[in-house]
Amino acid sequence: MGSVQRRGLAEAVRVARRERALTLRQAGEECGVSAATIMRIERGGGFDVDTLAKVCRWLNVAPGSFLGETQGKPRREHEELSTPDAVAVHLRADPNLDDRTAQLLAETFRELYRRLARGGI
Predict the structure, then answer these.
(1) What are phi and psi of 46, to 5 degrees?
(2) Domains in the chain, start-ordered, CATH in brackets?
(3) What is the pTM of this model?
(4) Which burial class, exposed, middle or buried, applies to 89 when counting CB atoms under 10 A from its CB (0-12, 13-18, 19+)?
């Protein structure tokens, strides 16, 4: 199961915003999220899978940079993601996929995962 490293993402967003001299509103517009969402991320607050994908695309980093364990030890501030949600984050952040294709692949993976986890197709 994947998890989100909120502190790492918060720092990456703050640094990118500072380097680009952007306001919260400008950063949000570039990401496709609200200024309030950027502020919440910078403060280490929660967000959904779609938001993580948009922010990672804006940062030009793989979502995997903020998923998983750090040096083999889970960090307590992580928000747990299901495996299908972690896959969806990666698909939505993939610049080779348009939004609809990423969504269809994520839905397909989610359904296959659900069926296989229950013991069969």
Answers:
(1) -80, 165
(2) 2-63+81-117 (1.10.260.40)
(3) 0.58
(4) buried
Check residue 81 and give its pLDDT: 65
- The CA–CA distances, whole Å, from 91 to 39, 42, 69, 74, 107 equal 25, 23, 20, 23, 11
pLDDT of residue 28: 95
Tell how far CA 97 is from the center of its chain.
16
The string of DSSP letters for 59-112 reads HT--GGGGBS-BTTB--TTPEEE-HHHHHHHHHHH-TTS-HHHHHHHHHHHHHH
User: Are the C-beta atoms of residues 110 and 86 closer than 8 Å to each other?
Assistant: no
Q: At what angle do helices 49-59 and 83-93 cross, to 10 degrees?
A: 40
Checking if the pLDDT of 68 tops 70, the result is no
